[in-house]
């Protein structure tokens, strides 16, 4: 058990419990780099090699895989080193829940999708406002056209009535 986290160590914890040091960033990059090959493979032995390669890469840099042994403030926490099947399962879990886009985990990806939807909604709202303005102009033009038509019809009727009146008075 240790309370010290090295520069290249990877703290694996549920939720947002991981410490984002250099080791965690390197680990995340390795996950992202190997994601496509891992997910495109239907062979467990290929997936096992990918997981082993990620683990070896972190260890070759002097890093260890740690998980919190106790709850508490970061400076008070104790960590135990993950090894063997527990470590392999932790890396496999991360690979399963990793999404392709920008190497984000499913939670981070969900937030990214929410932001994209917000931007899309803003764009749609702007387009709706533009359409409403165009409709309003068309309605105004339509009212003007109707008034012009009414005036023309009235003038035509008056002229027709005058001609009719002149022809009946003759």
UniProtKB/TrEMBL annotation:
<dbReference type="Pfam" id="PF20710">
    <property type="entry name" value="DUF6824"/>
</dbReference>
<keyword id="KW-0175">Coiled coil</keyword>
<feature type="domain" description="DUF6824">
    <location>
        <begin position="9"/>
        <end position="96"/>
    </location>
</feature>
<protein>
    <recommendedName>
        <fullName>DUF6824 domain-containing protein</fullName>
    </recommendedName>
</protein>
<feature type="coiled-coil region">
    <location>
        <begin position="114"/>
        <end position="148"/>
    </location>
</feature>
<dbReference type="InterPro" id="IPR049227">
    <property type="entry name" value="DUF6824"/>
</dbReference>
